[in-house]
Design goal:
- It is a single chain.
- By secondary structure, the protein is an alpha/beta fold.
- About 40% of the residues lie in helices and about 20% in strands.
- The chain contains 5 helices and 5 strands, in the order βαβαβαβαβα.
- The protein has a 5-stranded parallel beta sheet, with helices on both faces.
- The longest helix has 15 residues.
């Protein structure tokens, strides 16, 4: 509900209104990963949207502004690299984080070359997710 007070901001700075909370878009075809990310990040005070396909994520990016895109590498249809390239055309200033269980040197190097702000290797803990998101958003502040 817009205008409602939240328990505290993600950076610990005090209450935020619903509309001023950082917005994160989580994209992964694996339901349990999406549920974990949504639960952890909502508990930290972030406003979260989720998609299970790259195409759906891009539709959301066209309609809404996000502070951070958290995207899986390997998904049906578009992979995370393709989502990043198109999302950055839609929202050039949006931070982007890659989640992947495929942490080969080639994938890591390509993700870095494409400009991902952070690469989070699966499996990850809620604490690792929080640390990664906090780091990326702090660097973009």
């Amino acid at each position: 509900m817009a205008g409602d007070r939240v328990a505290g901001s993600p950076d610990g700075g005090g209450p935020l209104t619903e509309s001023s909370r950082p917005k994160i878009l989580v994209v992964d075809d694996a339901g349990p990963v999406v549920i974990l990310c949504v639960n952890v990040l909502q508990a930290l005070g972030y406003a979260i949207r989720a998609a299970n396909r790259g195409e759906t994520a891009l539709d959301l990016c066209r309609k809404e502004s996000f502070d951070l895109l958290v995207v899986d590498y390997k998904m049906p249809g578009m992979n995370g690299f393709e989502v990043l390239e198109q999302a950055r055309r839609i929202r050039p200033g949006m931070a982007c984080m890659l989640m992947t269980a495929h942490g080969t040197p080639d994938i890591i190097n390509e993700a870095t070359r494409l400009g991902f702000d952070y690469i989070l290797l699966k499996p990850f803990t809620p604490s690792e997710l929080r640390g990664a998101v906090d780091k990326v958003l702090a660097s973009k502040a």
